[in-house]
Specification:
Length: 150
């Protein structure tokens, strides 16, 4: 669970999204450490790389249009392939309440047997994304572990 935020990493801001994701993952039965908070940019890629091997890596933040937002690029460089339908569904989930949700550039994909999911940096965007993820996560992880397409 990786938080991409230069302001949170430097102590200028208290991240509120990481704890939401950690709590949700725990409720899904995952063992999760505290969020890793890193500044935007290459540190995001380094943190993802360090987490690969887990069944799931979720990032929050750094998916917008700001010049410092680089989570999608850092993620894509590590993926074997993308799962664009998941990223699109996450974007669409926020659209009714927050039209700007379509400006998120988050990607989802697979690196080895690890599912990597970029979520937005807002609490609402995270909740919307987790609602989408909850409906498909078990099936996706089962497939990555070699399960059948049931």
């Amino acid at each position: 669970m990786i938080v991409a935020s230069t302001r949170a990493a430097t102590g200028q801001y208290t991240d509120r999204t990481g704890p939401i994701i950690v709590e949700w993952l725990g409720a899904q039965g995952f063992r999760v450490d505290e969020p890793v908070v890193v500044p935007d940019g290459e540190a995001v890629g380094d943190a993802i790389r360090s987490a690969l091997g887990a069944s799931l890596v979720i990032t929050t933040g750094g998916t917008g249009l700001s010049p410092s937002d680089a989570t999608p690029e850092q993620t894509a460089a590590l993926l074997d392939y993308q799962v664009p339908g998941l990223a699109d569904a996450i974007r669409r989930s926020g659209l009714p309440a927050v039209p700007t949700s379509i400006l998120s550039r988050g990607v989802c994909g697979v690196a080895g047997r690890t599912l990597v999911v970029n979520l937005p940096g807002s609490a609402g965007g995270v909740r919307d994304g987790l609602a989408v993820l909850g409906g498909v996560l078990g099936h996706a992880l089962d497939q990555l572990a070699g399960g059948d397409h049931v």
